Amino acid sequence: MTATTGPDHGVPHRMGKITPLAFALTVGAAAFVLVSFNHVGLSWEKILGGGPGLARLVSQMFPPDLSRLTPVLVSLLETFQMAVVGTVLGIAFSLPLAVMASAKHAPHPLLRIGFRGLIAFFRTVPDLIWALVFVIAVGLGPAAGTLAIMIDTIGFCARFFAEAMEEADDGPQEALTAMGAGRTGILFSAVYPQVIPSFIATGLFALEKATRSSVVLGLVGAGGIGIELKVAMDFFSYDLACMIIISIFILVLMVEQASGWLRARVL
Amino acid sequence: MSESTATRSRPVEPGIPEASGVECNFIPGPVVTEVPADRPATVCAVDRLVLRFGGRGSPAILKGVSLVIADGEAVAVLGSNGAGKSTLLRCLPRLLEPSEGSVSLLGEDVMSLRRAGLRRLRSRIGFVFQRHNLSTRLSVLSNVIHGAHGRAGALRACHQALAPQELREEAMDCLAQVSLTDLAGRRADQLSGGQSQRVAIARALMQRPEIMIADEPVASLDPSSAEEVMDLFARLMRERGITLIFTSHHLKHALAYGDRVVALKAGLVVEDKPTARLREQDLDWIYDSNDRT
Ligand SMILES: Nc1ncnc2c1ncn2[C@@H]1O[C@H](COP(=O)(O)OP(=O)(O)O)[C@@H](O)[C@H]1O
Ligand SMILES: [Mg+2]
Predict the structure, then answer these.
(1) B77 alpha carbon, closest ligand
(2) Nearest to B226 by CA among B259, B204, B211, B248
(3) How far is Cα A139 from Cα A27, in angstroms, rounded to an integer?
(4) Are the CB atoms for B261 and B272 separated by under 8 Å?
(5) The predicted structure's pLDDT at residue B27
(6) Fold of B3-26+41-287
(7) Residue B16 buriedness (CB in 10 A; 0-12 / 13-18 / 19+)
(8) Is there a single domain that holds both residue A168 and residue A214?
(9) Is residue B77 in contact with ligand 1, taking CB distance under 6 Å?
């Protein structure tokens, strides 16, 4: 503490400086985490007590019931089709929305703020809630699920498309401007060619995400395999449920693998 | 200086010129000039141009630049790093918005043009940058066709596959001018620096430009290809009679390829002379001893 060499060497403090506000926030956050543990009622007894129940469930799941394989696969295909159509529609709407939300390409800053807000709204409302909304709007079935996925995809893609467009190199855009190209010309000749790999990667991520959500949207009646899973669970046909879960797992895995392979090829 | 301009009587000719006998014309009536009526003799006039990057309080980068360039001239703008050469060139087609002063290009008052008019004017002016600024993921041919944006529209000029046959052929002609027809199908990110810059020149030729502006067009190339590309560029402009305004920090380039040198220092024109009356050492003072490149 009483260093004889003087304090001028400028060795920083071990902990850095902490302001009273930062200190209060840290303590508050830590307290919130502790209180939350208490509130959710998680305990060793519960976890250990759940063991036998889980074991019973697993033992009833195996061997999986393969007798309904064909209808389950048909339903799984419908689920994936919801994901594909929802993603394609979402990407199609994201392209113009991203232009509106891009700081460099929006025709007016106010438009940009508005569209940013809309996209953030699409993103922050969870897909299950969109599914509930569309079930009410267009009725039970895959159309509702597809629309929910579309909205969710816009929330995801439009944001990342806009960011990719903002990061695009200015040089080619300036060259096009200097040649008398208009806004559309600059987008199609200088911006999109640059960002297409990133758009494709984002779109493939969106498809993976959509595939995962499409399998649960059925729980609220928005089409897809989720409803089969719910019925199987409700009727204690755990062996059928197991078969459905395994087929979902295989679908999601295949989509992820294929998308990863494609992404590696475009980047 | 102000006295001399004030006392000198300006030879203003209101309307009809005096019949001097030099211009013998059987058609009575309209004014006869040496200049073809569709093209003004002065293609670029910059008057007291001021540019600040910030608001009113911020320092001016251009502090009142005036410049008149005649049709067919090759003007080298010289100056050390940061003198404002790039800024001046960008102000001409209003890629940067000047704060004060006026610019006239090809007889149009650039400052008063609105969107469509400005685009039409820009399409008649080639601009070659220090970086090639190509769309690197597109083919060479697509990049050259981009030069037709002003006259062909966004859809037809954005990609070679969508372009009509006559644009594709014209683009091949432009590539032939820079001897790159064999690379038409190659992606632009597979080119050497010199090839990229030649494609950028072909793209500018595709505009059928009346003026060519070039900001250090060969500064990013190695010395031998810089020489080669600059030779080609200047020759193409001379052959076509296209006015060339280029910057360089090479005195040699300025003297070799310019008819005239305009020297900038700290945002002001400090020298404006035909190259024929200049030697390299006359220009040394433009560069401060330490920032000469
Ligand atoms: N976008 C910008 N914002 C602020 N200052 C700039 C900007 N571009 C250039 N400058 C400044 O303007 C001055 C002139 O730059 P520039 O015209 O590029 O010089 P030159 O091309 O002669 O080397 C430099 O001091 C540079 O820092
Ligand atoms: Mg420069």
Answers:
(1) 1
(2) B248
(3) 48
(4) yes
(5) 45
(6) Rossmann fold (3.40.50)
(7) exposed
(8) yes
(9) no
